Amino acid sequence: MKVYTRSGDKGKTSAIGRPRLMKNSPRIEAYGEVDELNSLIGLIISQLDTEQEMFKKLADELVEIQHLLFDVGTDLANLEKDFPLRITADAAKWLENQIDWYTEKTPAIEKFILPGGNPLASWLHYARAVCRKVERRIVTLMEQEEINTHAYVFINRLSDYLFMIARYTNTQKSETEVFYRNSDHVFKN
Question: What's the pTM?
């Protein structure tokens, strides 16, 4: 099988159950952004030292999320009424359980924190921002066409999960988080 087909050379691509779409259509944009997020999560996994138990758990979860992101992409590409949807409410519930586990292991916060900390936490914060971009693309699609709403809820929950595991990795590495403060003091003379 060849990787290139030349079928997209005129700016169109296939979706499940519909004629070819322009590559910048909201549907293609939405699942294209999911692919970007999935790739970023793969990069993060490649940086984990899975010899450490905390990172082994995280790597296993992130690989599962990669599989679920493929399912989200499939659901977003799908317009066939008879084609079974992949993402159910169980996916978001699973993420909620993980978020709760990490929340119990991190200090409470009452202010916004700046994205950053150790390199892993910084990558995770970046993935969270990319996940929010995916969410915005899906909302744009939802305004125009029907989608599997469980896929949207999963993406919404995923950004919360990425935030919590960024905080968790900072906590585990004794990295102090920087709380947001108003910048007015910088401009006062």
Answer: 0.86
